[in-house]
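R.M. (postdoc): so does anyone remember the format we settled on? I'll just put the structure tokens first.
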């Protein structure tokens, strides 16, 4: 964070804002509970094998797999609400990987879920992907609940949405580089290409940048009118980037203590409203203008529409390696509601959910 802003008087949240925060967090938990209570059964995915050119990774010990530099490490959050999307994302990664047996998944789950729910999620993953190499890490929601500010959509206020801030603390130190993926996407290209993105000598993370977006709109007039805060991006060619697809150097993250830098901005946000949109702005404040570039083909984002209506959208011009349904509209919900968008048909082949007809058969 740049020079500390002028001393601010501590502003306690009003009773109305406290009530709103509790309602939003309650809605998040209610959604999770409903999704958990709904019995979802998934098919077993095919087993995918390495091509002959793939490097060999010792398989005698799970620790050797976990710490291998030859593995492609992928981090995702895992919860009942987005489980169907996560299953499709996992399948797409494996199906299009040239070395699927060398992909290791790191799943972050909420510690506020009951042990039985966490075990159930792990059981579902193991049943559908019996050969998958993965580890599950509980995320302590209490670490972030007091820092979450209400945003424009309740789903953005769930604590697990902030777990990406703490990946370097959750994942073992032997893992030096990881690809972070949201649960509402599918890959149609080899993830090893994305994982091999060069970070140069200093960049901590890489992601596609969108410099045509109105960057100032991600922060409030309070932020831009503050003489100190408005200098945050001075000397940086800051552009918007989506945090749903990132390549992260965990060693550089740890050595630079970037979790603390993000948390400092979240603490300031609790004292004075400087942004509106969930977990994204702190990443922009810390990293925008200092990230390594990734081709836009690796995040064709916004397919879920905006955060209010979730209307259908077209693909951005150019080639596609990853389709991302960021926004309010999710393909599984629109397909189930018989109101799909045209591009939702590209997600459907990766859907492992067993239909009632298939279960009865």
């Amino acid at each position: 964070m740049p020079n500390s802003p002028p001393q601010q008087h501590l502003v306690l949240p009003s009773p109305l804002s406290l009530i709103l925060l509790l309602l939003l967090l309650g809605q998040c938990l209610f959604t999770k509970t409903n999704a958990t209570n709904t019995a979802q059964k998934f098919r077993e995915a095919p087993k995918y094998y390495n091509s002959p050119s793939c490097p060999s990774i010792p398989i005698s010990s799970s620790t050797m797999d976990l710490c291998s530099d030859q593995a492609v490490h992928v981090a995702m959050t895992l919860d009942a609400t987005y489980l169907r999307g996560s299953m499709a994302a996992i399948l797409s990664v494996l199906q299009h990987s040239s070395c699927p047996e060398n992909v290791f998944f790191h799943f972050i789950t909420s510690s506020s879920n009951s042990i039985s729910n966490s075990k159930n999620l792990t059981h579902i993953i193991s049943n559908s992907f019996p050969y998958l190499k993965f580890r599950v890490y509980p995320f302590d929601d209490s670490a972030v609940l007091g820092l979450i500010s209400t945003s424009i959509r309740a789903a953005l206020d769930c604590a697990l949405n902030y777990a990406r801030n703490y990946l370097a603390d959750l994942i073992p130190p032997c893992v030096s580089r990881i690809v972070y993926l949201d649960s509402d996407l599918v890959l149609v290209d080899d993830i090893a290409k994305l994982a091999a993105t060069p970070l140069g000598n200093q960049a901590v993370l890489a992601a596609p940048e969108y410099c045509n977006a109105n960057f100032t709109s991600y922060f409030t007039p309070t932020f831009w009118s503050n003489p100190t805060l408005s200098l945050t991006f001075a000397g940086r060619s800051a552009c918007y980037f989506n945090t749903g697809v990132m390549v992260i150097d965990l060693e550089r993250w740890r050595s630079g203590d970037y979790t603390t830098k993000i948390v400092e901005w979240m603490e300031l946000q609790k004292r004075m409203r400087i942004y509106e949109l969930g977990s994204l702005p702190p990443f922009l404040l810390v990293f925008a203008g200092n990230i390594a570039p990734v081709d836009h083909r690796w995040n064709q984002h916004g397919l879920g529409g905006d955060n209010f209506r979730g209307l259908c959208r077209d693909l951005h011009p150019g080639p596609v390696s990853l389709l991302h349904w960021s926004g309010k509209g999710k393909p599984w919900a629109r397909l189930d509601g018989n109101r799909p968008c045209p591009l939702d048909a590209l997600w459907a082949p990766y859907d492992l959910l067993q239909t009632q007809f298939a279960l009865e058969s």
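R.M.: ...and that's the designed sequence above, right after the tokens. Also worth knowing: The chain has a mean pLDDT of 86. The CA atoms of residues 46 and 129 lie 8 Å apart.
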